[in-house]
Amino acid sequence: MKILLMGPPGAGKGSQSERLVKDFDLTSISTGEMFREAYRNGEQLGIEAMTYIERGELVDDDITNEIVRKRLLRKDAERCFLLDGYPRTVTQAEALDGMLKKMNSCLSAVINIVVDKTAILERMVGRRVCKQCSATYHLSFRPPKVRGVCDQCGGELYQREDDQLESVQNRLNIYETKTNPLINYYDKRGILKNVNGMQSFADVYADIKRALRDIT
Ligand code: ADP
Ligand code: AMP
Questions:
Q1: At residue 207, does pLDDT exceed 70?
Q2: What is the 3-state secondary structure (H, E, C) of the chain?
Q3: Domains of the chain: which residue ranges?
Q4: What CATH architecture applies to the domain 2-115+172-215?
Q5: 31 CA distance to ligand 2 middle (Å)
C-alpha cells in the first residue's frame, strides 16, 4: 500500500500518520521531518532547507525531489509507504510519478484531510513538538500529561519556528496557490479520497481507515 496524505499545514497529517504507520506497518516519509532532522544533524541540506522553512516558504523543488528520490530507493520503502507533505507542487507530483514509474509502481490512494481556515490557524499556533522524538501535541486539543514534556520519551516540547503567526499566514497562501491544484491532479486519476478533518482525532482516523478499506 502506497499512500499519500494531503491537506493544508496543520490539518492533522502528522498526527494521523503516527497511528497509520503503526497500524498498517507503513514506512513514514515526511519531507518536513527529513529537513528538520537534517538541520538538527547540522547537515548542509538541512541548513539550506531551514532558510526556506523559517520564512514559511517551500524548499526548492529540485532539492526536495532529490531527497525523496533517494529515500524511495531504500529497501524499507519498496513495499509500503506513507508520504506526508510531499508532493506540494505540480512539478513535485510529476517528479514523483516518474520515480514511481521507474520502480514499476504507483500510488494506491491519496487521502486529503479537509479542514477550514480557522481550525488550521488554531491548530498550528497551538502545536508543540518533541525535540527528541517529534511526537506532536496541542496546547488545548492534545496537551501532554506534564506541561512541556513529551509523554512518550520525556523529551522537551517546543514550538516550531514556522508555527509563529507570520509564517503560518505565508504557508497558507502558498498552500492555496501551489499545493491546492494537486487535489484536482489526483482527483482526475480517481485515487483521491476526501476525509473530514473537522472531527476528533479518533473520528478522523476512523474515516481514513474506512477510505483505505478496499485498498491493497
Ligand atoms: P500537519 O502534519 O498536517 O501539519 P499536525 O498533525 O501536526 O498537522 O496537527 C497540527 C496541530 O493540530 C497539532 O498540534 C495537533 O495536535 C492538532 N490536531 C491535529 N488533528 C486534530 C484534530 N482532529 N482535532 C484537534 N486538534 C488536532
Ligand atoms: P511540514 O512538516 O510538512 O509542515 O513541512 C515544514 C516545512 O518544510 C514546509 O513549510 C516547507 O518549508 C518545507 N517542506 C516540507 N515538505 C516540502 C515539500 N514537499 N516541498 C517544499 N518544501 C517542503
A1: yes
A2: CEEEEECCCCCCHHHHHHHHHHHCCCEEEEHHHHHHHHHHCCCHHHHHHHHHHCCCCCCCHHHHHHHHHHHHCCHHHCCCEEEECCCCCHHHHHHHHHHHHHCCCCCCEEEEEECCHHHHHHHHHCEEEECCCCCEEECCCECCCCCCECCCCCCEEECCHHHCHHHHHHHHHHHHHHHCHHHHHHHCCCCEEEEECCCCHHHHHHHHHHHCCCCC
A3: 2-115+172-215
A4: 3-Layer(aba) Sandwich (3.40)
A5: 6
